């Protein structure tokens, strides 16, 4: 049976569910030995800010929130300085704070999320998707490679150097 998967803006009523999903992801990163998300970020204030600024998005499976992410249009100050080179200088969507509810872990949800982000990007006439991740986030690095993202260099973000990727959508 096929599940109905949708990407929608997060609403303030989703806050507690989103925060729970992020806490699960923070703990998974810690258990994996990663330094990513281990210094008090992201936190509940981050979620509330994302929602207030219309950056927060959830991917639902049959109406249940499975994945959280922040999608930011054309605005990531850290991306203006890259050790390397972006593929493009046009409009872009930034993907931050990808977290999967453990109930949906191992089901390819992040790949599905990126499919939805690419449709969203294309439907808004935006040229590319840019994303960064920690050097030790092996799962995300594999997903970005599988989804055809190009490694562009390194950016300084959240107190450390991060691997930066871009994919031209249109």
Automatic annotation (TrEMBL):
Keyword Transferase tagged: yes
Domain N-acetyltransferase: 5-166
Protein name as it appears in the record: GCN5 family acetyltransferase
High-level lineage: Bacteria, Pseudomonadati, Bacteroidota, Flavobacteriia, Flavobacteriales
Entry annotated with the keyword Cell membrane: no
Assigned keywords, A-Z: Transferase
Pfam families listed in its UniProt record: Acetyltransf_1
Gene Ontology molecular function: acyltransferase activity, transferring groups other than amino-acyl groups
InterPro entries found in the cross-reference section: Acyl_CoA_acyltransferase, GNAT_dom
CDD domains, alphabetized: NAT_SF
